[in-house]
Amino acid sequence: MIEALRLLQARMTGAGPPPETVTETAETLEKLAAALEPFTVPEAAQIVGHRTDLPGRGQAMAPPVHIEEWDEEHVLGHVTFSRFYLGGNGAVHGGAIPLAFDEVMGRLANTGRPRARTAYLHVNYRKITPVGSRLRVEARFEREEGRKRILAGALVDGETVVADAEGLFVTLKPGQP
Ligand SMILES: CCCCCCCCCCCCCCCC(=O)SCCNC(=O)CCNC(=O)[C@H](O)C(C)(C)COP(=O)(O)OP(=O)(O)OC[C@H]1O[C@@H](n2cnc3c(N)ncnc32)[C@H](O)[C@@H]1OP(=O)(O)O
Fold first, then answer.
1. 119 lines ligand 1 (CB under 6 A)
2. Do the domain assignments include residue 6?
3. Is residue 177 part of a domain?
4. Coiled coil: which residue ranges (predicted)?
5. Whole-number pLDDT of residue 32
6. 17-26, 48-57, 82-91, 145-154 — which is least confidently predicted?
7. Gap between the Cα atoms of 133 and 148, Å rounded
8. Residue 176 included in any domain
9. Per the structure, how many domains does the chain have?
């Protein structure tokens, strides 16, 4: 279902259909939304965001990061930003790149340690990130200072770092959501 939605997002972004196809598509989508409505569940029971085995944890908003290696010190994976993530002129939207970093760095920060949330994510856009290219995405645990965990990340196209990031993740205190 999520893969089909991702395909739809990419095709819709790249399409310039005639008005009758736009109307027909809108009607079909409204029917699908209505069919799912009776199955609305509380957050804890939803599938989306809870499937760590799926790219982007099954969250269609998150770029589909495929995890290849994952332990307490590093995460390695790959991601291809579809047309859905286009910012302009062939480049990925600047807001989509932190989504990928938060996904891999958040996963790493929360592996083998108590729960933490992103306090900041500092992203450097070094080069244009191309839509449609398979990119390597990496994260590594740098250091821990009390409740603070500092992580580093990089997005690499071939041999070229197109973006890198530093993230601060803070261990939650009891009662913090
Ligand atoms: C088998 C295992 C499976 C695991 C599988 C997991 C898979 C799962 C994948 C999940 C992948 C998605 C992961 C997404 C992760 C999010 O994106 S979380 C959503 C985005 N983040 C948020 O909503 C956080 C909102 N902010 C907050 O809740 C609070 O500000 C925080 C971050 C909890 C910190 O608040 P606080 O507890 O009051 O902390 P506070 O005492 O003020 O500060 C503690 C220290 O941090 C420093 N600090 C705090 N904020 C900042 C800042 N922005 N800048 C600099 N320093 C700061 C303070 O200066 C202080 O430093 P020290 O004085 O100790 O040196």
1. yes
2. yes
3. no
4. none
5. 98
6. 48-57
7. 34
8. no
9. 1
